Amino acid sequence: MNITESLKIAVKCIKSNWMRSLLTMLGIIIGISSVIMIIGAGTGVRDYIVGLIEDMGSNAVLVSVDTTSATDNDYITLDDVENIKNKVNGVERCSPMLMGFGRATIDKTATEATAMLIGVNSDVQFALTNSCEYGRFFTDEEYSANAPIAVIGTNSAQQAFGYEDVTNEYVTVSSSGKSMKIKICGVANVDALASTLGGSSSMSNMFSSAGGDKTIIALFMPCTTLTQITGADANLGSVFVIAKEGYDYDAVGNATVNYLKSAHGNYSNNMYTAQNMA
């Protein structure tokens, strides 16, 4: 059978099963579009968080994985976070940064919003110059216990509840078929600078332009809690590293990169990079 005959048979099959062919094509198109949108949204959120912390006068170093070429073995793990904190010379604190999305139901009003979920540990608060305006950040003990707790952005609180001090209120977050009631332990100015960042004028605009909700709430929660909600593995694309007093941040960033290269057996020049955000 030559190529011409094969093409004729293929066309004949498509014509005789045109509905099935149409649905198959539609499924492929929707699937590819969904992947592109998710990747784009994830990149936007990462840039949002990075820019936000940078603009707030952070004293952190952002260490990132080249996600465009990374394999599963290249991603940073939660064990890496502890090892960086305890073994890399000059490191005072280290926080993971894991991102996810979900649906948020405001328990008090039963209204819904899109939830931008940022999984971190309690060390991330030391990368910000502004502490919680209301309440507190979650503790190391709450992180270790996978506590259903979160810090909400000031603007997020205002949009979702109509006022800022929403400490001890509850939000039910749903993702990947799982739901968890989250207690808000603090309110911090973590999303007030969204309109100044590159790309879209705000996270709300980014999502609404893609057909999503105009109400977007940002929740900083224990990374371990986030993985329980989303069901995803804690494969980290970025971590925040804070240097000890008197240590050079660039040197600490490079030391962290060298640790990751050795730990993951990948000595590519561009797989791990460090960005001084001071």
Strand content is 25-35%
Tell me the major beta sheet.
6 strands, mixed, barrel
Number of E-state strands: 10
- Helix percent band: 25-40%
Mean pLDDT: 78
Q: Give the number of helices.
A: 8
Overall structural class, as computed from helix and strand content, comes to alpha+beta
Give the tally of structural domains. Answer: 1
Order of helices and strands: HHEHEEEHEHEEHEHEHE
Observed structural traits:
10 strands, 27% strand, flat, alpha+beta, 278 residues
Describe the structure.
The protein has one domain (36-276). A six-stranded mixed β-barrel has the order 2-3-8-5-7-6, surrounded by five helices. The chain has helices spanning 3-16, 18-55, 78-87, 140-144, 154-161, 203-209, 223-230, 249-264; strands at residues 60-65, 91-106, 112-120, 132-135, 149-153, 170-175, 178-188, 216-222, 238-243, 272-276. The termini are far apart. The chain has 278 residues and is of the alpha+beta class. It contains eight helices and ten strands.
Reconstruct the topology from this structure.
Elements: H1 3-16, H2 18-55, E1 60-65, H3 78-87, E2 91-106, E3 112-120, E4 132-135, H4 140-144, E5 149-153, H5 154-161, E6 170-175, E7 178-188, H6 203-209, E8 216-222, H7 223-230, E9 238-243, H8 249-264, E10 272-276
Parallel strand pairs: 3-8, 5-7
Antiparallel strand pairs: 1-9, 1-10, 2-3, 2-6, 2-9, 4-7, 5-8, 6-7
In short:
The protein has 278 residues and is α+β, with helices and mostly antiparallel strands. The chain has one domain. The chain contains eight helices and ten strands.
